[in-house]
User: Fold this.
Amino acid sequence: MELNGVPLHPLVVHAVVVFGPLSALTGLAYAFVPRWRWLLRWPLVVLAVVTAVASLVAVAAGEDLLSARPELAPIVEEHEEAGELMRNVALGYVLVAGFAAWALGGASALASGRGARETRLGIPAAALLVVGALALVVTVFLAGESGAEAVWG
Assistant:
């Protein structure tokens, strides 16, 4: 996979590096600041989906790049494993973000802040969202660090 002669993998990776931590920060704010939930609900879900799609494309483009340049295999083995783990965490984060948006969401009165509903699953949903956000940031960092190590030494 290429775009104007440049391998797609290093281009798409930057989307993951931007949207992954942004999605995680949005998840943390959604979990810890209840009065912002009415504003962050849809951005949380959309950012989680964008991160997951970008990670799917990044892994596919990385596998394509590796098949085109098999001599890179020993150099990028750790990066490949970290990228696949990050992809799986990003896909799981979509589920967690959707669950949290449902369990912690609801109509809210913008002026008073009252009226937001929370299901009985609110605390577990917030805890899952925090764990998922932290896992996403850690795996994005590990995949990025191992990729930079593979490229720059």
